[in-house]
Amino acid sequence: MARLITAGKKAQHTAKWARTMTKWLITWSRRRSVRWNIVEFGGATGSESRGIVDLLAIRKDHRSSGNGLKSGDLFDMVLIQTKGGAARNPSNMDIKRLLKVAAHHRASAVILAIWKKGTSPVFLLLIGQKWKRVDSADIFG
User: Fold this and answer.
1) Alpha-carbon distance 7 to 27, whole Å?
2) Fewest C-beta atoms under 10 Å: which of 39, 68, 96, 124?
3) Start-end of H helices in 5-135
4) How high is the pLDDT of residue 122?
């Protein structure tokens, strides 16, 4: 007998897999020695928490930065929103929120990771107020 699950449970399950597959692709696409660390903002039960950002990819910036700082003192950050299954893309209001958060934290990029079962995630880079498809290695390689 097939087990029936509610739409909400199915959406939570798909969202979790979207985050998992996004983390996998970021790790897989890394070519250089500087490793990205992924921070996941999950709720108490493992479901999504409040806020516009689902994942934060962060690594040390080893370029010389001047201003009395040494190599590795600063960070390179990418904000990531994940969508799984049939979830809608971010609205114009969501895009404005993402841009504000990115400016506040001085993130180098904002990524929308879209995952559908049986496929690798697709990465879209936010440029202005438009999404442009990019290869994961271009951002995380």
Assistant:
1) 30
2) 68
3) 7-28, 92-105
4) 95
What is the token pair recorded at 114? 């879209």
At residue 59's C-alpha, the angle toward residues 49 and 117, to 5°, is 50
Residues 80 and 57: beta-carbon distance below 8 Å: yes
3 state SS of 34 = coil
CB 113 within 8 A of CB 22: yes
Q: Is 129 helix (H, G, I), strand (E, B) or coil?
A: coil
Q: Residue 23, CB half-sphere, CA atoms under 13 Å: how many?
A: 14
Q: What is the pTM of this model?
A: 0.85
Residue with tokens 């994961």: 136
- Cβ atoms within 10 Å of 97's Cβ, excluding its own: 16
Find all residues with CB under 8 Å of 28, minimum gap 6, and list them: 136
pLDDT tens-digit map of 86-132 = 889 999 999 999 999 999 999 999 999 999 988 989 999 999 999 99
Q: How far apart are CA 83 and CA 111, in angstroms?
A: 11
100, 89 in Cβ contact below 8 A?
no
Task: Count the Cβ atoms, other than its own, within 10 Å of residue 117.
Answer: 10
Collapse the DSSP code of 54 into the 3-class scheme (helix H, G, I; strand E, B; otherwise coil) and give the result: coil
